[in-house]
Amino acid sequence: MGVLDSGRVEVRHLRAFEAVARLRSFTRAADELRITQPALSRTVRQLEDALGVTLVDRSSRHVETTRAGRAFLDHVERVLAELERAFDAIGRQASIGLGFSWLLPDPWAQDTVARFERATGATVRLVRTDDALGAVQQGRVDVAVVRGRVTSPAVRVVHLFDESRVAVCSVHSPLAGRSVLDWEEVPRWPLVVNTASGTTGPWSWPAGGGPETVVETTNFDEWLESVAADRGIGVIPDVAVRRNIHPGVRFVALRGAPESPVSLAFLPRVHNAALRRFVEAAVHSAKGG
């Protein structure tokens, strides 16, 4: 018998041995653990070398644990069960900060938060911020909902879906009585633009084709109040139609308007299991799952 070297034993070794012993197959265990069979065999062999005993009898047609392997398995199962309980306890205390600059898409946001919290026990903190991308880069939130094209190389962007656009005008605007407005007509009106997080502005048309008059605002609330005051019209994703955002505005359908992309942005080098699970839940909800 060799000399025990427990310092070389890691959780991955225990998980590998437990899977092989339970499934009695290196092939099925490798599939379950999502690693290659040679890698799994090396991991079990490393565990045996560290313990100085043979845990698995590879000579028979079916993989069997040795007497030492069966005795060790009882302890391994208890250790792994305790680890799972510890991970669950920590997971319930974890949280994800989700930044957004204005109206969250529905029902995607509600579905994603519910799916993530139900699966992980962690919570989602909703953080309203005028600069969602900046909040991600400064570490104030873990991930942010962003609309429009994102070209910053500092963040990783995962596209979720595209939103349709709708025009917004004051109840006192001549447009308030219209049922539909063509996209080509929009530049004929003064356009209220949210320069911080808006999806529609002079950049939305070819050079020289945008509105002559632009009213700049720096957040969603300023944008909304400026439209309500009839300083110009606005263009916004149609999620706003399903919300009672202001009694002083009216929505007008837009014909021929390009859709607006909705994405998640987060730092690319952050190794956060909860963040990974949240992005998975977000993509699943976006696909209608």
UniProtKB/TrEMBL annotation:
- Entry GO terms, CC: protein-DNA complex
- Select a single GO molecular function from the record's annotations and give it: DNA-binding transcription factor activity
- Keyword Transcription regulation on entry: yes
UniProt keywords (A-Z) are: Activator, DNA-binding, Transcription, Transcription regulation
Q: Which domain of life is it from?
A: Bacteria
The chain positions of domain HTH lysR-type read: 9-66
The protein's matches in Gene3D superfamilies, at most eight in alphabetical order, are given as:
Periplasmic binding protein-like II, Winged helix-like DNA-binding domain superfamily/Winged helix DNA-binding domain
Pfam families in the cross-refs: HTH_1, LysR_substrate
Task: List the InterPro entries.
Answer: LysR_HTH_N, LysR_subst-bd, WH-like_DNA-bd_sf, WH_DNA-bd_sf
What is the role of the protein in this entry?
Answer: Required for the induction the katG gene for catalase. Involved in the response to hydrogen peroxide.
Similarity remark: Belongs to the LysR transcriptional regulatory family.
Listed name of the protein: Probable hydrogen peroxide-inducible genes activator
- Organism of origin is Mycobacterium scrofulaceum
